[in-house]
Design a protein that fits this description.
Layout (H helix, E strand, L loop, with lengths): L1 E6 L12 E6 L2 H12 L4 E2 L4 E2 L3 E4 H4 L3 H5 L7 E4 L1
Parallel strand pairs: 2-6
Antiparallel strand pairs: 1-2, 1-5, 3-4
Length: 82
């Protein structure tokens, strides 16, 4: 199992304004499935199939970002871990 960090921007269609959630999963696709299961209808933009987040990092890559270093992404940090 790996940790995946799903990050959010500040646009109106993002699930959260900034910050991230951490999902423990077998793969990126498994992390997406868990994200959808956790947030239900709020996870996608209705009628488009698009997910309401900005980007997904594995733990190693996330730890190389300024978000990790500053514990901040657009004024927010960790929203949830599952």
């Amino acid at each position: 199992m790996k940790k995946y960090y799903i990050t959010f921007g500040t646009g109106p269609r993002q699930l959260f304004k900034g910050g991230w959630v951490i999902v423990t999963a077998e793969s990126r696709s498994d992390a997406v499935e868990k994200f959808i299961k956790q947030f239900g209808r709020d996870a996608t933009i209705e009628g488009t199939g698009l997910l309401r987040f900005a980007f997904m990092y594995d733990e190693e890559d996330f730890k190389m970002t300024m978000m990790h270093e500053n514990n901040d992404n657009c004024g927010a940090a960790l929203h949830a871990e599952f």
